[in-house]
Amino acid sequence: MYYGVDMSPFEMDESADSFQDKLSLPATAKLLLFSGRMNELKNPVFVVDILAELLKTDKDYVSVFVGEGDLLKDVEQQAAHYNISSHVKLLGWRKDLPAIMKACDVFVFPRQEEPKEGLGLVVVEAQAAGFQCYYLMVFLKMLLKYQT
Fold it and tell me: Measured between alpha carbons, how far is 67 from 94 in angstroms, rounded to an integer?
């Protein structure tokens, strides 16, 4: 069985400006991408929390969600709670994920630590799109190191 990732879709040079135009966003928008099932395990609501914090210092951030699931309404409600719904774009499932990844600035993979699972395919795709990938515990350790 073949479990690799076809890298050819990630070799295209999709213009970020073109993607932002499709979403009616300014060229200055900084795009955070969540891709996957919107369920408790994948933790998409946390992306809205991250966005709310980022928007306190820079109003150019927008979170792009590719996927659907049980927590779709929770994502919408959390965005409404923070009054940042205009900074959240819910795209549903898409067949052009490589192009979307290439157009975004940051890939967010806030998956819960437990239960353990193997390396998610979306992480491999994110790396193929050129994202630097940091796992939550590594990221938290880096933050704590610089705060002390």
Answer: 7
48 neighbors 82 (Cβ within 8 angstroms): yes
Tokens of 116: 């353990």
Bond prior to 110 in cis (omega within 30° of 0): no
Sheet with 88-92, strands from edge to edge, namely 88-92, 61-66, 30-35, 106-107
How much helix, strand and coil, in percent to the nearest 5, is found in the chain?
A: 45, 15, 45
**Torsion angle defined by CA atoms of residues 44, 34, 92 and 81, in that order, rounded to the nearest 10 degrees:** 40
The pLDDT tens digits of the residues spanning 15-41 come to: 667 889 999 999 999 999 999 999 999
Burial class (CB in 10 A: 0-12, 13-18, 19+), 50: middle
Burial class (CB in 10 A: 0-12, 13-18, 19+), 138: exposed
pLDDT digit string, tens, across residues 99-126: 999 899 999 888 776 766 666 778 778 8
Q: What is the pLDDT of residue 49?
A: 94
Measured CA to CA, the distance from residue 44 to residue 109 in angstroms comes to 8
